[in-house]
Write a structure and sequence with these properties.
homodimer, about 250 residues, alpha/beta, eight-stranded mixed beta sheet, elongated
Chain lengths: ~250, ~250
């Protein structure tokens, strides 16, 4: 049995809490939050507290607070003997002020109110020694078979790549929706195409899956598209991304 | 029973041919291609020809050739009495040189060798009169319940929006893969995140689904990300898309 305490009450905390509630080999001893209000969703099923002095001894403390607050929160845990981990994609392990440090980073986007199947989520872990690594591995494997040893540097790179596939991809959807709205077209029409775009990369590399005027250097269509875009920001995105697709094609040749 | 002839032997032709083969109320009379070689995959199940003089009378001729060749191909059909349609997202209906003109545009990306479920695909149709529209509607409904009346202008807009959700989204995946490779990270790690990114827009608008440093104006993280990108094209994309996300947030406030 692994005992854990979750620090923070946001999306990551909520999803991890729900996931661990279903695991017999893990017990959530406490949830620590800033306000009683924020702890409400947890207090039926776990002890909760707003005071770091009340923190009990557990095997692993999981800090789920925002990047900017991790260091300060970890200072409150400097005297604990348990393993202290954060769940951030962007912060180094060394930011933690505890004696035992690690990272437990589930590579996923967490949405309030939407249940996630943790068994499909890659969990990137990092620790300072073999014993702590093993402990995190056991914790991770209770949720998902996809446990990866990723260093702090690699995790930063991964997090940056995640911005492209998540934040920027979503902004492509946003831009397409804006374009549709200029001509009274329902954005929903594009959803099957979006689904298929993602389906394709299950069995093709992004290089192989690339289609469209830029990859075939269809200058006439690209010019017509640029002329058709009224919004200067849409034009800029069209130009830069097309240029980048052209550069990718050239580098492969 | 609707009789059709498919002109062209590429991806769209192949997918439509396969789909119509499963429909009792539609018969593919002929497939017309430029070479005997290209017609091979069709000749077991349909008559084929490389000569426009051999074209038989049918209800609908479906031109699936590349945009640049549509006009010329339609000239060969100027004497037919059947309805002539093309399947292009980008070309106007008026480009057709036949007496009866229409458009039958399945809004999807077609990949060689990958079967598609046509019943999920929106089909955008357009004709010059009510009778021809009804005929295309019956043909479309044999494949999919999602038949939409989309004008030539709207179709151009839709096709441009499709470039963003398909071509440009795929290029975000490509860029992420390149970023991963700089640090020996397997791109597959990002695939569950990609799946969830698309899952989210089934019940959230792209505005609601937007997360990341740009939307919360986290300047420090954005600067760290830019510093972390070595490739100047990656930097440019990061800057423009972040700027565009910031502009979107401002316009909503």
């Amino acid at each position: 049995m692994i005992s854990i305490t979750i620090i923070g009450t946001g999306n990551v905390a909520t999803h991890l809490f729900r996931a661990f509630q279903g695991i017999d080999s893990v017990t959530v001893a406490q949830v620590i939050g800033r306000t009683k209000e924020s702890l409400k969703p947890f207090k039926q099923e776990s002890k909760t507290s707003t005071h770091y002095e009340e923190i009990e001894d557990v095997d692993i403390y999981i800090i789920t607070v925002s990047d900017a607050a991790i260091k300060e929160v970890s200072e409150h845990l400097s005297h604990t003997t348990g393993l202290v981990v954060h769940t951030s994609g962007a912060m180094a392990k060394s930011i933690l002020q505890s004696s035992r440090k690690g990272v437990f980073y589930p590579l996923q986007t967490f949405t309030k109110g939407k249940t996630l199947d943790f068994s499909t989520i890659p969990i990137c872990i990092e620790a300072e020694n073999q014993d702590d690594y093993k402990l995190l591995e056991v914790l991770g494997k209770s949720l998902s078979p996809h446990i990866h040893h990723i260093s702090s540097d690699q995790r930063k790179t991964l997090h940056l790549a995640a911005v492209f596939v998540n934040n920027f991809t979503n902004h492509m959807f946003y831009t397409a929706k804006e374009i549709c709205e200029t001509d009274n077209i329902n954005f929903d029409l594009l959803k099957p195409l979006i689904t298929e775009t993602v389906e394709k990369i299950r069995f093709l590399t992004p290089e192989e899956a690339q289609t469209g005027p830029a990859v075939r250097n269809d200058v006439a269509t690209m010019q017509r598209h640029l002329d058709g875009l009224e919004n200067s920001m849409h034009k800029k995105i069209y130009q830069i991304v097309s240029e980048s697709i052209r550069a990718a094609v050239s580098s492969e040749q």
